[in-house]
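Hi everyone, sorry if this is the wrong subforum. Our group has a chain we'd like a structural model of before ordering constructs, and none of us has done structure prediction before. Sequence below.
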Amino acid sequence: MAQTRAAAIANATGGQTPIRLAAHFDDADQQRAAATLGMWVFLTTETLFFGALFFAYTIARSAYPDAFAAASRHTSVILGTTNTAILLTSSLFMALAVRAAAMRAHRLAAAMLMVTAVLGLSFAGIKLTEYALEYREHLVPVVDFAFAPDLFRGAELFFWIYFTSTGLHLVHLLIGIALVSLFAWRAYRAEVVNLATKVEVVGLYWHFVDVVWIFLYPLLYLVARA
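Answer:
Right subforum, don't worry. Here is the predicted structure as tokens:
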């Protein structure tokens, strides 16, 4: 059995950096499939979570269409569009990192991962700047919110959903940045085994965060600009 597992590892790596198999896996393909499936299951639960927010948004917008349109005009479409471009670009570099890891080009994978992390940090910085601007404009519910009296209730509900959804997205993004940075460092130092599988799994998470933003962007920024 030990020889069979050793042969599987040798065949999977082509004599290069070894792939570490956990005791309950027969070969590298089975281990990779299990890791990928685990991430997909996790992302499914996250999709249900964000799906509830999107459903709440739909109901609220149908109840207060004018207020949602007016509130959306107070968001910064320039900053929102800039962040959308940044996040889409980060997805490109993450895809390149996955490709480099599959080719066992550790240094290249590390470089692509670092670019991805820097782009993620840029997104976070712009988003926090946007929050500061909205605070100055008295658009933060509970803390400091002021709006036209006839649209107040609907506009406040819009910004409740806005800060909840974008805040949760930002938390997920920061987790992704931490993971990407960790693997970039370990890949650069060649301290990680099963690099291709791990980067692929992190890539799935990163792309999920991007997809969530692709839905949030038009719903929050383009309501009154379509």
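For your construct planning: Helices lie at 2-13, 28-63, 65-72, 77-102, 106-136, 152-188, 195-221. The two ends are 63 Å apart (CA to CA).
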